[in-house]
DNA sequence: TGGGGTTAT
DNA sequence: ATAACCC
C-alpha cells in the first residue's frame, strides 16, 4: 500500500472538486462488488490528486502540412528547408538517412532524390497548428500548446465523467486503446489503471478526429502528469499511442540515456550538471539536493530533482490566444542602416497583417538583433517601447499608414542598440508585438472589466479578413 | 541551427 | 532586458 503512494507523484493538493470527482468514481467502483478491494488500495492516495494527461505530438508537422498542400509530394522523400537547414522531413526521407536540422548539403549528399520545399514562411503551419489546438479544445477546454506541433490536454474531468456514466458491470470490460508501455499487465481492479485506459480511449478519439477532419497523423502519450505523458508519447513513433501505467514509471524514466533528454533540463542546466559529474538519471536522483540547490538555485534544483523521479506537478495551463506575434529573418550579413530598415519594413508588413486578423491590439513593440560573432552561441539583444496610443488605434482599421510611424519607432530602437556611425554586422533581425490587449482598454471604469474579459475568452483562429493598403511585400 | 514561442528573474 | 526553457 505504501508503495502505491510512492509511485504516484505527489501532485499539488487536490482541490475540492477533484476530491468529489474521486469519491464518485470510487462509489461506482465499489458498486461493482467484486472490485471492493479497490477502496483499500486507492483511498490512502486520495489526498494527492491523480490526473490523466495526454500529450499529442504531430508527426513531422511541417512536412505533413506540405504534403497536404501538394499531394504529389506524398510518397516522395520530402524535406522542409529554412535557410541552409532541413528543419524537418517526412518518414520517406528519414528512411533514407535525413535527420531533423540537417545541413541541406549533407541531406542532399545522403539522399540525392530529396525534394525540398521552403518553410521559412510559417503562416500555413501556424494556421494548421491552431486548428489542431481548437479541435482538441472540443474534447476538453484545458489545452496547452508547446510549439506548433504539440499539445497537452488534461483529461481528468472527462475521464471521471465517463466513469460515472459507465454501469458497474461495464467497468471490468474497459479496454486499452493503443500500446501499454513496457507491455505491463493491466489490472482492472486498479482504479488508476481504469482511468488511464479511459484516457487512452479519448486519445484515440482525438487522433481519429485529427485525421478525419484535418488529415493529420500524430502520436499520443497518456500518463498521470505532463512529463510522463510527453516521454511516453514518443515510445512508438509514427502515428501510434502509448499509455503509461504507474508501475512502469521508473522503467520509463530510466530508459533515458542522458538527463538532457528530460524536458525541462536544457542546454545550460545540462552543462552545469555535467561539471558536477551528473549524466544519467540515476546520477541525478541520488545526488545531494543541498549541493544541487547551491549550484543551480533552489527553484531549478528542486524542480529537476523531482523531474528525475518522474514527478511533475505542473498543471496543464490553457494557452488561449498567443501572448505575442513575431517575425524574424536571419542572414549572412546586414551592415547598413538602409538595409536594416528594408528588412524591418518587410517583417513589419507581415506582422501588421497578422495582428490585424487577430483583432486584439499590441501595446508594446520590440526589436531584436543578433550580432555576428566568429563562432559563439547566439546572444541576442533587444529594445522595446510602448506603441503610441494614436498608432494603436489605427492598427485594426486597415486604412491609413501605420507603417511609417511604426518604422520610425523601430528605427529609433535600432539606433539605440546599434551605433550606426560605427561598423556593424548583424545576422538576424526580428520584430515582436506583445502586451496584447483585447480592446482599446484606455478607458477606465466598470465597463473595462467586461470589455477585456469577454474577447479574451474567444477561440483563436483567423477572423476578420483585411487587406493592407501598404505597398510591396509578398509580390512572389 | 531556423523561425518561431513561453515564463522567470 | 536578459536568460532560461520548449518545439
Number of helices: 20
Strand content range: 15-25%
Count every beta strand, where a strand is a DSSP E run of 2 or more residues. Answer: 14
Global structural class: alpha+beta
Give the integer mean of the pLDDT values. 85
Using only CA atoms, what is the Rg? 25 Å
Strand arrangement within the widest β-sheet reads 6-7-1-9-10-8
The residue ranges in which pLDDT falls below 50 over 5 or more consecutive positions are 1-47, 443-458, 462-476
Instruction: Assign an overall shape.
Output: globular
Distance between the termini: 66 Å
The major pleated sheet works out as: 6 strands, mixed
Percent helix:
40-55%
Short account of what is shown:
The protein has helices spanning 2-7, 16-31, 37-42, 61-69, 91-95, 104-110, 123-139, 156-165, 168-171, 191-214, 226-233, 249-254, 267-275, 281-285, 289-296, 298-308, 337-358, 389-395, 403-417, 447-457, and strands at residues 53-58, 78-82, 85-89, 102-103, 115-118, 143-146, 150-154, 179-180, 218-223, 241-243, 324-334, 361-371, 380-386, 426-437.
Amino acid at each position: 500500500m505504501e508503495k502505491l503512494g510512492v509511485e504516484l507523484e505527489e501532485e499539488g493538493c487536490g482541490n475540492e472538486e477533484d476530491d468529489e470527482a474521486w469519491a464518485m468514481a470510487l462509489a461506482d467502483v465499489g458498486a461493482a462488488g467484486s472490485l471492493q478491494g479497490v477502496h483499500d488500495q486507492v483511498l490512502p492516495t486520495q489526498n494527492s490528486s491523480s490526473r490523466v494527461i495526454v500529450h499529442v505530438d504531430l508527426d513531422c508537422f511541417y512536412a505533413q502540412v506540405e504534403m497536404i498542400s501538394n499531394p504529389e509530394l506524398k510518397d516522395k522523400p520530402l524535406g522542409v528547408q529554412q535557410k541552409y537547414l532541413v528543419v524537418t522531413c517526412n518518414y520517406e526521407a528519414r528512411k533514407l538517412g535525413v535527420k531533423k536540422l540537417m545541413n541541406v548539403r549533407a541531406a542532399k549528399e545522403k539522399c540525392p532524390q530529396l525534394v525540398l520545399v521552403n518553410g521559412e514562411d510559417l503562416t500555413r503551419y501556424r494556421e494548421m497548428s491552431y486548428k489542431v489546438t481548437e479541435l482538441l479544445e472540443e474534447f476538453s477546454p484545458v489545452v496547452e500548446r508547446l510549439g506548433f506541433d504539440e499539445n497537452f490536454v488534461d483529461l481528468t474531468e472527462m475521464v471521471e465523467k465517463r466513469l460515472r456514466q459507465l454501469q458497474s458491470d461495464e467497468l471490468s470490460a474497459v479496454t486499452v486503446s493503443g500500446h501499454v508501455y513496457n507491455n505491463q499487465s493491466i489490472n482492472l481492479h486498479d482504479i488508476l489503471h481504469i482511468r488511464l485506459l479511459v484516457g487512452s480511449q479519448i486519445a484515440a478519439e482525438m487522433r481519429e478526429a485529427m485525421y478525419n477532419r484535418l488529415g493529420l497523423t500524430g502520436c499520443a502519450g497518456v500518463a498521470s502528469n505532463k512529463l510522463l505523458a510527453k516521454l511516453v508519447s514518443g515510445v512508438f513513433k509514427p502515428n501510434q499511442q502509448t499509455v503509461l501505467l504507474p508501475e512502469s514509471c521508473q522503467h520509463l524514466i530510466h530508459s533515458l540515456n542522458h538527463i538532457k533528454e528530460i524536458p525541462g533540463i536544457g542546454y545550460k542546466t545540462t552543462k552545469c550538471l555535467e561539471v558536477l559529474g551528473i549524466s544519467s538519471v540515476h546520477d541525478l536522483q541520488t545526488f545531494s539536493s543541498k549541493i544541487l540547490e547551491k549550484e543551480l538555485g533552489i527553484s531549478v534544483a528542486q524542480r529537476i530533482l523531482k523531474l528525475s523521479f518522474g514527478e511533475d506537478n505542473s498543471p496543464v495551463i490553457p494557452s488561449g490566444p498567443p501572448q505575442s506575434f513575431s517575425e524574424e529573418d536571419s542572414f549572412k550579413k546586414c551592415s547598413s542602416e538602409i538595409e536594416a530598415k528594408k528588412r524591418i519594413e518587410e517583417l513589419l508588413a507581415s506582422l501588421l497583417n497578422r495582428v490585424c486578423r487577430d483583432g486584439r491590439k499590441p501595446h508594446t513593440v520590440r526589436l531584436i538583433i543578433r550580432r555576428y560573432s566568429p563562432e559563439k552561441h547566439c546572444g541576442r539583444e533587444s529594445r522595446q517601447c510602448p506603441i503610441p496610443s494614436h498608432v494603436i488605434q489605427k492598427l485594426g482599421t486597415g486604412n491609413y499608414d501605420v507603417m511609417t510611424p511604426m518604422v520610425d519607432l523601430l528605427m529609433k530602437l535600432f539606433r539605440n542598440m546599434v551605433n550606426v556611425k560605427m561598423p556593424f554586422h548583424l545576422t538576424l533581425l526580428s520584430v515582436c508585438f506583445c502586451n496584447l490587449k483585447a480592446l482599446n482598454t484606455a478607458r477606465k471604469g466598470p465597463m473595462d472589466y467586461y470589455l477585456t474579459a469577454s474577447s479574451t475568452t474567444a477561440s483563436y483562429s483567423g477572423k476578420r479578413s483585411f487587406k493592407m493598403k501598404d505597398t510591396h511585400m509578398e509580390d512572389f
